[in-house]
Design goal:
Blueprint: H1 16-26, H2 28-31, H3 36-45, E1 53-57, H4 64-67, E2 72-73, E3 76-77, E4 79-80, E5 91-92, E6 102-106, H5 119-128, E7 132-133, H6 136-145, E8 155-157, E9 161-162, E10 173-179, E11 194-200, E12 208-210, E13 212-213, E14 215-217
Length: 219
């Protein structure tokens, strides 16, 4: 089985206190219905260390539709594709989140070595290596803190988020974050903008890895 680590890994994450200030600057705490002091207190109480820990807001408090427009790439704001109006219904699937508004995601990896795998193939490979797929909101938080994580031809899927239909089956769409080419319904004005979209569960894409984490914890 191929190694799922990235050969071109981003630098260590900033200290948690720095990450908290970044989220405050962007107004994420307001979307989450919390004060800036609450966010700072959590980051400080978690030790303030960064490195391999990403500060994340629970998707119930700051959904993808609220935080995706905060993304930036080449000066362009992020957006959700028009045929994904139900983006906030993509919820954690087979992923256990801390029961708290704020938590840490440890050891995020872009999964470049799984490019050209399908989600169907990638999920058992990740779990077999004791990795857990990132949620869509966690992937967005990662790019908010480290925009360089999102690179053309090195983007990623976030298959920890799935949409369960009324009959109990899972929707075949799986969310991903990549860079728009400005074609089709995206519009030319969105060329090079960070894009939240989706791919089919059984399809492969050479330019999409599978973002994962070592785990999650509440401080």
């Amino acid at each position: 089985m191929p190694d799922t680590s990235s050969t071109d890994a981003p630098p260590p994450l900033p200290p948690l206190t720095t990450q908290a200030e970044r989220l405050i600057e962007l107004g994420v705490h307001e979307h989450a219905g919390m004060s800036a002091d609450e966010l700072r207190a959590f980051a400080g109480g978690a030790g303030g260390e960064g490195g391999d820990a990403l500060l994340a807001v629970h998707p119930d408090r700051a959904p993808a539709s609220a935080v995706a427009p905060l993304l930036r790439h080449g000066g362009k704001p992020g957006f959700v594709v028009t045929d994904m109006p139900d983006v906030d219904r993509f919820a954690p699937c087979a992923v256990e989140l801390p029961d708290a508004p704020l938590y840490l995601v440890t050891g995020p990896d872009r999964g470049d070595h799984m490019a050209d795998w399908s989600p169907e193939e990638a999920l058992p490979a990740l779990t077999g290596q004791d990795r857990t797929p990132l949620l869509l909101t966690e992937g967005i938080h990662w790019v908010l803190q480290q925009p360089e994580v999102l690179r053309r031809n090195h983007c990623f899927m976030t298959i920890g988020s799935r949409l369960r239909k009324a009959n109990g089956t899972l929707d075949a769409r799986t969310p991903a974050i990549w860079i728009s080419n400005g074609t089709g319904r995206d519009g030319r004005e969105r060329r090079n903008a960070p894009k939240v979209g989706w791919c089919w569960w059984g399809n492969r894409h050479t330019w999409l890895g599978f973002a994962s984490a070592a785990g999650r914890r509440h401080a």
